[in-house]
Structure formats: structure tokens, C-alpha cells
Design a protein that fits this description.
The protein has a single domain, classed as Hypothetical protein af1432. It is mostly helical. The protein has 16 helices and no strands. Helices cover about 65% and strands about 0% of the residues. Pfam families: HDOD.
């Protein structure tokens, strides 16, 4: 068992996605699944039902009429969107904890920002639905949470080194922990049976050597992560903005006017989505 596997094993011994979240994800990937199947699984967790209905009725969705049942929520949101909301609720509690050298709460805000930006890019630039890139965005840095749980001081030393200009966060993680959050996050995504595109997004979102093809989920997620850094929604305070792979940099330059509009509209979208990413329950 290598270092990454050891960290994942120790992390999942205390924290993992709840059974309902895992089951909902399986249903999304099952072409035979029905609306009734979703409703039956989600009803197993009454607290989750309450929170999902609160999210569905939040300004983020802007529904004209209040939704009062899970069956109607499935109709309005669709299977994948509901899967994302279940994932948000499952992950939210893992990101509690603040601090100057590393803050899970700032990491959660960064993750939510990346998810919202990724969905905006998918819809506005490429005309796609955006549910899969949202999921990739909300979960892409979960490896940092596992590192914080299992090797918190080493993670802080890596962050300190990066702030001093001693290389990227990923390079510093490898120096102090012997692995990085991308590799750990991908192992978690595999264990949780998330889709291949989401897994690739997590594994390669800091790999500048990787060739990203637009409009793939990994490519859009990398764009959203870069934009979140540029707009100061940093997962680790003081860590510099990672560079964008050349092909994606050329794409942004060619569509600069469109991306400026996304930047302009992000604060409003974040305000509407507050119910998604607040963690003060």
C-alpha cells in the first residue's frame, strides 16, 4: 500500500460519503433507474430530505412555485442535479474547520466557486448542461481534506513552503507528504464510484503536462479552478495562482469578452447559491 492509499484508508475509516449519496450516484449511472428509485433512496434519510427541499427552494434554482416533495424535486431538478445536491450535503460537514495556515472553510468556498464557475462556463461558453462539471468542481480538492485529517502538520508545512515561493502546492505536498491531493482525491473518487470524467478532473487539475480537450469535463474544471484563483477564492491562503495550460490559455484569450461577463456575473450567482455552500448549520 503506497502513501496515497494509506492516507485514503485512514481517512475513510472516519469519514466517507454516506450510503444514500453513494446509492444516488449509482442510480445516476444506471440507465434503468426511475424517478421512483431516486425517491425511495432519498427518503431513507429524513434530514437529507429536509435539506434538499431547502436547497431546491433556494434562489439558486429560482422556481416560481415552492416544491414540497422529493418527487417534485426530481422532476424540477433532474437526476444529475439532485445527485449534485446530495453530494453537496454529504461533503459539507467534511469542510468544517478554520485556521491561518490551512482552512477547510476557505477550501469549501473555493470548491463551491469552482463548481458554480464550471457550470457557468459549460452553459454559457459551450451550451452544455453542466451537471458533471459542477460535481467535479465541488469535489476536486477533497484530497486536501483527507491530507488535513491524516497528516495535517505536513500539509501545513507544504502550504508554508509554497507561500515562501518554494514551488507549487502540489510539488510541496510531494516533498512533505510523499503524495498530493490530486492523487488522493482521484483514489477517493474511484472508491466512491464517481464517473471517469469526474475522476480525471480531480486527478489532473494541476497537471500542466496534460492535454485538455475542450469542452471535456476536465478542461472546463481546470478553467474554473484557474478563474477562482484569479478572483481570490483561494483554497489555501497565500498560495499563488497556478498557471493555465497553453491550449486553455489560448482559448480564454480568444473568448475574453465572454469570460469577462462570467467574471462580472459570478458575485450574483454566488449570492443566489449561498444556501449551497454555507456550512454554519
Amino acid at each position: 500500500m503506497n502513501i496515497s492509499q494509506q492516507i485514503v484508508s485512514k481517512f475513510t475509516a472516519t469519514k466517507t460519503l454516506p450510503h444514500v449519496a453513494l446509492k444516488v450516484n449509482q442510480l445516476v449511472r444506471d440507465e434503468r433507474a426511475t424517478m421512483h428509485d431516486f425517491e425511495e433512496v432519498i427518503r431513507l434519510d429524513p434530514v437529507l430530505v429536509t435539506r434538499l427541499l431547502r436547497l431546491v427552494n433556494s434562489p439558486y434554482f429560482g422556481l416560481a412555485k415552492k416544491v414540497e416533495s422529493i418527487s417534485k424535486a426530481v422532476v424540477f431538478c433532474g437526476f444529475k442535479q439532485l445527485r449534485n445536491l446530495v453530494a453537496v450535503e454529504a461533503l459539507r460537514g467534511m469542510f468544517k474547520g478554520d485556521g491561518e495556515r490551512f482552512s477547510r472553510e476557505k477550501l469549501w468556498l473555493h470548491s463551491a466557486t469552482v463548481a458554480i464557475l464550471a457550470e457557468m462556463i459549460a452553459k454559457r461558453i459551450f451550451g452544455l448542461e453542466g451537471e458533471d462539471v459542477f460535481l467535479a468542481g465541488i469535489i476536486h480538492d477533497v484530497g486536501l481534506v483527507a491530507e488535513d485529517q491524516v497528516a495535517g502538520e505536513e500539509l501545513r508545512l507544504a502550504a508554508d513552503a509554497t507561500r515562501r515561493g518554494e514551488g507549487s502546492l502540489v510539488a510541496s505536498e510531494r516533498r512533505y507528504l510523499g503524495t498530493d491531493h490530486c492523487e488522493i482525491g482521484a483514489l477517493l473518487a474511484k472508491e466512491w464510484k464517481l464517473g471517469d470524467e469526474v475522476l480525471k478532473s480531480i486527478r489532473y487539475h494541476h497537471d500542466e503536462r496534460k492535454s485538455f480537450t475542450l469542452p471535456s469535463v476536465p478542461a472546463i474544471m481546470v478553467l474554473a479552478d484557474f478563474m477562482a484563483f484569479k478572483m481570490q477564492y483561494n483554497p489555501v491562503p497565500g498560495v499563488p495562482v497556478p498557471s493555465l495550460p497553453p491550449a486553455l490559455a489560448r482559448h480564454v484569450k480568444s473568448m475574453m469578452a465572454n469570460y469577462k461577463i462570467i467574471v462580472r456575473d459570478l458575485p450574483e450567482e454566488m449570492e443566489k447559491a449561498k444556501e449551497l455552500y454555507r456550512i454554519d448549520d
